[in-house]
Amino acid sequence: MTTEYHTLSNGFRIVTEAMPGLQSAAVGIWVAAGGRNETKAQNGIAHFLEHMAFKGTATRSALEIAEAVEDVGGYINAYTSREVTAYYARVLAADVPLAMDVIADILRNPTFEASEIEIERGVILSEIGQALDTPDDVIFDWLQEQAYPDQPLGRSILGPAERVRGFARADLSDFVAQNYGPGQMILSAAGAVDHAAIVDLAEGLFGDMAAQPQVAVTPARFRGGEMRKIKKLEQAHFALAFESPDYRDPDAYAAQIYATALGGGMSSRLFQEIREKLGLCYTIYAQAGAYSDTGMTTIYAGTGADQVKGLAELTVDEMKRAAEDMSDQEVARARAQMKAGLLMGLEGPSSRAERLARMLQIWDRVPGLDEVVDKIDAVTTADIRRYGQALVSDASVALALYGPKGDALGLEALQARRAA
Predict the structure, then answer these.
(1) Which residues are catalytic?
(2) How confident is the model at residue 418 (pLDDT cuts 50, 70, 90)?
C-alpha cells in the first residue's frame, strides 16, 4: 500500500492510499475546525454546522443527499471533535466520484434554510438532554471543563442549550467563512482508489476556492480543579485527569503505554487490584488522549457512593506504585496491546482514511506503520516509570464526581495522598 499526496494551488491537501483487493473505498473531508475553534458565544456551533450539512444544498434536498449515496449502497456520515470536523462516505469503487460530489456539495453549497435550522435545533437539544442523562458521558465534559477552565478546549462539543437555542443562519455562515478555507481541509481516501483520478476530481470540486489564512486557536493551559454534582443515581461516577503530552511530544507513546498498563484492560493494575481483588467497582479504566498542544490521561470508575473515597485513594496508590515497580512484562503486554489495536484497527478503508487525514494534519506527512511500531517498541520500562513518576508528582489534577452523596472526597486530600 502506497500513500500519495497532492496540494492544490489554494492549499487544499489530498492524501490517498490504495488498498489492493478491495472493491470499496472510504473518502471524506477532514476540516481543521472543531469545538476549540469557537468563541464562547459560538460554543456548540461547529457541531450544529455538522448537523446542518445534511439538511439541504442549492441542488439537493436533505432526502436527495441521503438517497444519492444510499441508492448505490453506500453510507455518509459526519462527526465533530474538539479539533476536527469530518464529513465522509463509504461506497463501491465506481461510486467514488458521486461520493466526492455529494460531500463537496454539502460543504460548499449549504442553504441553511430557517425551517431546517429549527428542526435540527430540536434534534440537538434532545441530544444534549440525552447526554445529560448519561452520567458516564457527561462526566467527561465536566472533567474537561475543570482541566481547561474558561478556555475553548474546556467547553463541551455540543454546547450549552441556551447557546444552541439562539443560533441563526448568519452564525452558521460566519463560522464557515472563518474556518472552512481550503487550507484547513484535507481530502482523504483509502481503499479501491486511484490517486490521479481523485486529484482531478478534487481540482474540479475545490480548486476554485479562494485561499484564506487560518485562524489561530487559543493555546491550551491545563489548570485543574474539581466539580461535584449530587444526584440520586444507582452509583457514583468518578473521573480524574492529569496533563499528558501533545501529539508531537516524544513522550506521547509512553503516555499511551502507561495508561494501558495502568487501566487499559482486564490484566491492568487498576482492573486487577480494584475490581477483581477488592470488588469496589464494575467499571474502571485509564486512557491517554492528545491534542495539538496538550493532552490528558484520564481515569474513570463507577462505584457505590460510600466506596468513592476508598476507590480514589487506591487509584492514587496504584499510580504511585506503578511509578516505582512497573515490570518489564507489564510494559511488554501494554506495547503488544497498543500495536495490535493500531494494526487491527486499520484493516478497513474508513479507519485508514481517517488516519491519513489526522496524520497529515499533525505531521504534514503520514508516518509509515513500521515507523510507528518502532517508536512503540522503543519505549522502555524505565521510560514508563519516569513518566509515571512525573504524572504522580505533577501539581495539576482535575476531578469530576457525579452521583449520590456519600463518603467525602476532596481534591486537596487526593493531592496530599499523591505527595505522601
Answers:
(1) 50
(2) confident
